[in-house]
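In keeping with the milestone schedule agreed at the kick-off meeting, the structural modelling team has produced records for the first pair of proteins. Each record is given below as a sequence line and a structure-token line. The laboratory manager (R.T.) confirmed that both were archived under the project's standard naming scheme.
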Amino acid sequence: MSMIFLRIGSNAEKRYVERVGTLFSGLVVRANLFEASPGMVASLICRLAGLQEPRGYIIDPVTYVFGTDPALPGNVRSWQKVSEEKATAKLAADLRVPESEVSEEWIRPVQVPRLPEDEHRREVLSIKRSFRSLADKTLGRMASVAGLRPLAPTDLRQPEVQDELVAGAITYQHEAVGSRFAHRRYGQLAAAIPPPMYTLCPYFPVQDPGSLGIMASIWSRFAEQHQGETGMAVLQCTPAYLERERQAIVEALDRLPIRAVGLWIDNFEEERADVGVLNGYVRLVHELSLAGKTVVNLFGGGLSNLLYPFGLAGIINNPGYGDSKPIVPVSGGRPAAKYYLPSTHKRETVEDAHYYLRRAGLGRSSEEFRRDVCACPICRDAIRRGAADLIRYFGEVGEADERRIYHPTPRAIERCRFHFLLSRLIEFRWSRSASREELRERLQRDSNRWREIPRAGEHLPRWLAALGIA
């Protein structure tokens, strides 16, 4: 069975579930989002589960975050405003340490005062409430170090720690939604909530033989505790490690009774990767599928969405990101309006997409645009005069900021994201029933189309080479 999932990472993204969620195989949410907004997430899951053709869900336990530096920007700790007299007590309570162990470096004056009372307040570098709650529910004894330091290999090698992590992750994923309807008045509704489509094993980055051994042990304990076909072992590693140790990875996963495998390749930008890394990825997918594994890419790009003929079983998409994601969090900037060009299989700035189409002589009228560029419902509505409408509709900007820079409007960003999701669905529906020969022909045709235009399709020959069909 081929699958395509929709992942959301914030409350604002619920609109995508409400409008196009039924077109996907299921919904994926991070456990920390569930802890931050349990009512919103639970209601979306219940709505999808109650359809005539129900859609399932997956809750990502995100255990890996507790193995990274908690103080990194965007990670489990953040600067939070409190009254000056409560600063030390809050840090001690949140981080589970005596007040005497609270570091002065964790307290500072309010950096950007906006209110008169900010003069008497402080900012404290404390663990976010969602991660505090998640750690307490899933980490067992290691919850005591959450927010203070990363979980280290010496921690993760302990059998009792592994057992607690596995038990915590399984219990959380199976009980999180139902716990929102624990009151007896919701008994009938709670009974109707299905279990997750897949239950993810707790996971941490694999970067050497030692960490692969730790994860292999955690996978084995997960297989012992989680019975049935819906368990998923997750491999999180760098592109370089995958290319170098692919055979060791396949052997470790092949020994497991767990049927499903989730892949997260750190910051794997498929349109930028070299042929060696791409080929290693394609071969990993193919070899795991031959071993009977159901392989799902948790953050796949344009190539992944075409790999169903090579054994990929599923891909997860996010409206704003999802083509790739780094393991270590990156501080976000302003969201960009990027248009997904179906024939390059990647997102471009609206200006670049318009430039490429104009250089290639594509989409000069609405009819040509639908035939040669995109015929998704968003573009059918938007493109009335040809590719020039890209700028008007998808590249709409608001007033200039204080630096006289124009930024895309929220409406333009939302249009780009809906177009991206619908384009991915169209590609998925084609790819899941295509043969390898048909895939080769399509990529070759796309490569030929953009051959004379620098940067537009320069990745496509590498994709062809990586597939062994150049």
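The second protein of the pair:
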Amino acid sequence: MQPSPIPFYLNRPLLFIVFESDTFIIGYLLLMWCWVIGFWFFPFAVGLGWAYGKAKATFPRGFLIHGPYFLGLIKFAGYPLYFQKRFLE
């Protein structure tokens, strides 16, 4: 059996314009939030977008979604709560 290359859509992120999809969605939502609240919120939105991009580049993949799990704010399906210490065998 000959090895075959991994298809394009599995090893490259989906891009909108020049941004990855999650970065584009964050920026779009912040821009819409500025439009609804008022453009005095714009510097804060730019700062949030910059912080998200910096955190995404700094931490490993999946770290940002696990942050709320570590704080006990969300629960992953099939996983125990983060603070659970005793388990049945």
